[in-house]
Amino acid sequence: MSQYLVLSRIKIQNANTIAGFTWGFPAITSFLGFTHALNRKLSDSYNGDYPCELSGCMVIANRADNKVYRPKKFSDFEFIQSKTPPVLAKHKNSSPPIIEEGKVNLTVSLVIELDTPLSLTSDKSVEFENYIESLCRSMHIAGGTVLDLAKVKLLSASTEEQHRTLINKVKRLCMPGFVLKDRSDDLQQRVEEITSQSDVELPQPRLNAWLDFSALKFVAQPKLKEGQTQPDEQTDATWGYESKVYKGYLVPLMVGYKAISDVYEAGQIENTRDPDTPACFVEAVHSVGEWVSMHRVRNLDEFIWCYHQQDEWYLCQQAPNEADDVNHLHIDTNQSQSDIDEQVLNLF
């Protein structure tokens, strides 16, 4: 039997919209972190009355309003900044500082998978749902405040027919919206294409491939005169948008971390959040995802994000396997910034 906890239309205020090199939507680690925190609160509160683990979640975006503006008509978007902290008595004769940050107000729905189905009566199910709702309203998601939660529903299915009914119920609770699908396989395929097409060895083939999914590219289309076969310096041209390499609403996203140091014993690193836990230094790992309309979902398990840890990799994946670490982008920031900038500029 499969069982899912549906959190329908969570309204979040001032969530963090910056994730690694990307912005626009919180990182997957934010939602899995919320799932893990909810699981810990649930385990501590009921002393084993609900013997289950919240093992992963499916992320559906219903609405996202990034707090950005354009200084000029065709300029880049910039984040709206605020005075943080607000004016206090000590700032009476001076202006408080501005801490640069990116915020978003969004509405999301989460479908959380239970690793062990619960056998509950109807009354117990309602009690469980009400308790989960009270927990969610007191928590933060991606650093943002939970303002409202439309509904919490515990759904179960055993047979194929029940699974179809369950999916229809999830769609009614979460539509309209777009669910995030892992497309790391396409990133690896693009890396192989670039490597095979290039006559010289590229310094960062995965960076080139990743930017192919995220960069907006325009190419010159020459206007050849009658009888002209090749453009020259005098040939006029029009600039046109170059379509991305793969079809779909593809976006770059941050999917986890890679360790860049050994694991240090508790207390060896100063100013850590938890001084009683071993720690190591990490850097962000990026991949590619696709926003898929919720009505196209046929199998919930294909869209459930779960943690996957192996060696120095700590990733959020939908179908983890031992070779998936090669499908992600990790940029070594031990390089000088000029080297990284040069790699990026060479793509255009």
In short:
This protein has helices at residues 28-46, 122-137, 160-174, 184-197, 205-214, 337-345, and strands spanning 2-16, 18-19, 22-23, 54-66, 68-69, 78-79, 103-114, 140-141, 144-157, 178-182, 217-222, 237-242, 250-259, 282-293, 306-310, 313-317. By secondary structure, the protein is an alpha+beta fold.
List the topology elements:
Elements: E1 2-16, E2 18-19, E3 22-23, H1 28-46, E4 54-66, E5 68-69, E6 78-79, E7 103-114, H2 122-137, E8 140-141, E9 144-157, H3 160-174, E10 178-182, H4 184-197, H5 205-214, E11 217-222, E12 237-242, E13 250-259, E14 282-293, E15 306-310, E16 313-317, H6 337-345
Descriptive terms for the model:
348 residues; alpha+beta; ten-stranded antiparallel beta sheet; two-stranded antiparallel ribbon; 6 helices; 32% strand
What gyration radius follows from the Cα positions, in whole Å? 24 Å
Distance between the first and last residues' Cα: 51 Å
Low-confidence stretches: 321-326, 336-348
Strand content: 25-35%
Number of helices: 6
Instruction: Report strand order across the widest sheet.
Output: 8-9-1-7-4-10-14-13-16-15
Q: Report the oligomer.
A: single chain
Q: Shape from CA axes?
A: globular
Question: What integer is the average pLDDT?
Answer: 83
Q: Tell me the helix content.
A: 10-25%
